[in-house]
Design brief:
- By secondary structure, the chain is α+β, with helices and mostly antiparallel strands.
- The chain contains seven helices and twelve strands.
- It has helices spanning 9-42, 59-87, 197-208, 217-228, 231-234, 268-276, 294-306, and strands at residues 99-104, 107-112, 117-120, 122-126, 131-137, 142-145, 153-155, 161-165, 171-177, 189-195, 258-259, 264-265.
- A five-stranded mixed sheet has the order 3-2-1-5-8.
- The two termini are 34 Å apart.
- Bound molecules: copper (II) ion (CU).
Length: 308
């Protein structure tokens, strides 16, 4: 189970707290169950037996079952508070964020302001580096949670929240929006790709560069269509006149494994289905179907495919 396979200090602290509370809870449940079963058999009413002696209160016992839960809960409280400080330490106000996460209906925008990279739905992180992260929303309340990374944080419009994100193990980890935010909430997935620092640097270098925009063939025709049609009103592609910010930045869309926040694999066929009618892949989605011809669709898909 994912929460039991932490890839960060914060996630393992959460796991330890959870495990301790779970074990204590299980022991108490067992104890109470055994006592209830034992008492109901041992002290059951038997035929022809007179009414047993009535007992009204035993001070020692009452003291025991009042004080011991109080002590136990007090201990758990202290342990929880310490864990909270370790998992979510205060971030100095003058620390500028390394990463800005913006929730949108129904996708995630990831900005790296210090690196000049903007991407969507797939978060790249260098192994072992601590990122000051700002989480906010462009519309309604969302919530960012990747169980193996640790802390969950709400994305609230107009009220940025902050946390540290650090991943200590290379690999791909999944998360999702965990605050119901409308029709396609279930398809607001997060894919975290943790890489060795040098691979992350190479990714940044590639993502921050202006792509070569094709001018010939199907891809060239697609590039022209993209800026002429309303696509450009909602999407940004560096190196073109497309500067929209309603939808995900598509500058290097082909380097992503999935499209539409995990709703489909990123293949040419799926891109074509998506451009034709996004509702087929992700019902409710805020991207219109433009009623394009098959040729226009395949040119656009060829263009987007070329962006890598
Ligand atoms: Cu949501």
């Amino acid at each position: 189970m994912l929460p039991f396979q932490p890839i960060s200090g914060a996630a393992s602290d959460i796991r330890s707290l959870f495990t301790v509370v779970l074990i204590i809870g299980a022991i108490i449940l067992l104890l109470v169950t055994v006592l209830v079963v034992y008492s109901s058999i041992r002290f059951r009413a038997r035929k022809d037996e007179p009414e047993p002696r009535q007992i009204f209160g035993v001070r020692r016992l009452e003291l025991f079952w009042t004080v011991s839960p109080a002590v136990l809960l007090g201990g758990i409280l202290i342990y929880t508070i310490f864990t909270m400080y370790r998992v979510a330490p205060n971030i100095p106000v003058n620390e500028a964020p390394d990463l800005m996460i913006v929730g949108h209906q129904w996708w995630w925008e990831f900005r790296y302001p210090k690196l000049g990279v903007v991407t969507a739905n797939e978060l790249h992180l260098p192994k072992g580096q601590k990122f000051v992260t700002e989480v906010t929303s462009a519309d309604v309340i969302h919530s960012f949670w990747v169980p193996q990374l640790g802390q969950k944080l709400d994305a609230t419009p107009g009220r940025p929240a902050y946390m540290y994100i650090q991943a200590d193990q290379v690999g791909t980890y999944l998360g999702s929006c965990v605050e119901y935010c409308g029709t396609a909430h279930a398809w607001m997935r997060i894919r975290v790709i943790v890489e060795e620092p040098q691979n992350f640097d190479a990714w940044v270098k590639q993502q921050a560069a202006i792509p070569t925009i094709p001018t010939t063939g199907a891809a060239g025709a697609g590039a022209k269509l993209f800026t002429e049609l309303t696509c450009a009103q909602c999407h940004t592609i560096a190196g073109t006149t497309a500067k929209g910010t309603v939808g995900p930045n598509l500058t290097y869309v082909s380097t992503r494994e999935t499209i539409a926040a995990g709703a489909a694999e990123n293949t040419q066929a799926n891109l074509e289905i998506w451009i034709d009618n996004p509702q087929v892949i992700k019902p409710g989605v805020h991207m219109p179907s433009l009623g394009l011809s098959a040729n226009q669709i395949s040119d656009l898909a060829a263009f987007l495919e070329a962006l890598k």
